[in-house]
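The records we work with from here on pair a chain with its fold. The integers have meaning only within a learned vocabulary of local backbone shapes. A complete example follows; check for yourself that the lines match position by position.

:::
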Amino acid sequence: MALFSKQNKEVFTNPLNVDHPILGQVLGICSALAVTSQLKPAIVMGLAVTVITAFSNVIISIIRNTIPNRIRIVVQLVVVAALVTIVSQILKAFAYDVSVQLSVYVGLIITNCILMGRLEAFAMQNKPWPSFLDGVGNGLGYAMILVIVGAVRELLGRGSLLGFQIVPDACYDFGYVNNGMMTMPAMALILVGCVIWVHRAYFYKEK
């Protein structure tokens, strides 16, 4: 089927490996550092960016031929801002505690360079279905890093995952101490740097 052609599969899978938005293109680092102190907000932020990137790509792709070139960035920002507002209100209604943890970072999705980059580089030149796949792929690639970094930071820094204690009390009785540095933003940068190192060592190693 054309919907699942080899080209469309590559559009979806490339952002998950060699063309990863954070690991390959080093985009979206700021929010990756800001919302990964715990796993739950990292998951929610990753899903929010995935949904917004996918649907903004589709909308811009549908109307791309009617957008005057000189105001295309303004139109893209309006579409993204509308979707971000909807997602923000949904979070406040159904996951208020997470929306408080994410604070202003949900609103800053509007200026996320991954999202704006895909609108300009892909959605403006391609049809809706490939644009949707591109948005989902890039969003999931971004979310994957947030989940990895958030899980490591919460586990080592708090001894828990998603608020549930993972490190048993017996370990603390034997002298185990949570690594307080893991809760600091600097450790997120170090962890992202380590993941980028592993990613590039795998995909860009000399043949």
Summary: The chain is about 65% helix and 0% strand. The radius of gyration is 19 Å. The chain has a mean pLDDT of 86.
